[in-house]
């Protein structure tokens, strides 16, 4: 942790998956977090700016010869359980989630799942495993977020930082 008492600022680094939780619960007033983590956590925070940094997309991917059979439950491997559930619920599709934490692309190859829901940046890993993007459904990038109460009480300071971030990301 680094402090700047004169400015009244304290900086600290946490795991990306924890940023939204620290901000939501008020341990941090603001943070920068990937949209994937924000969506997966369901954190109740203000999303103030899409920085446009770290762009990628949340996708459904599967074998190149994949044909969906609507008559049976779809097996979906992912580390993004909540995102996948919301996506398929909106489609009215019955799914079985298989939660994995790594090497998601192996699941359909080994018959563990029919498809995967994962982040895709270039698609190289998918191609290397003979998979293809079936659907892109969420753009992902780094977002500037604020705790709801902090934003009400510290709005001038947070808005000043927001303006500076906006200038930097738009240049």
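-> sequence recovered:
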């Amino acid at each position: 942790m680094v402090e700047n008492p004169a400015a009244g600022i304290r900086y600290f680094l946490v795991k990306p998956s924890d940023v939204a939780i620290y901000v939501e619960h008020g341990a941090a007033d603001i943070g920068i977090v990937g949209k994937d983590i924000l969506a997966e956590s369901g954190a109740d925070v203000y999303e103030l700016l899409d920085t446009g940094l770290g762009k990628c997309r949340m996708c459904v991917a599967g074998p190149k010869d994949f044909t969906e059979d609507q008559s049976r439950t779809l097996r979906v491997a992912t580390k993004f359980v909540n995102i996948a559930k919301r996506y398929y619920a909106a489609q009215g599709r019955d799914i079985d989630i298989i939660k994995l934490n790594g090497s998601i692309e192996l699941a359909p190859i080994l018959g563990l799942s029919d498809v995967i829901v994962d982040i895709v940046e270039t698609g190289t890993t998918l191609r290397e495993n003979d998979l293809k993007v079936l659907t892109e459904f969420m753009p992902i990038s780094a977002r500037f977020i604020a705790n709801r109460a902090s934003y009400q009480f510290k709005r001038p300071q947070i808005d000043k930082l927001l303006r500076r971030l906006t200038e930097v990301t738009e240049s």
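The longest strand covers residues 131-140.
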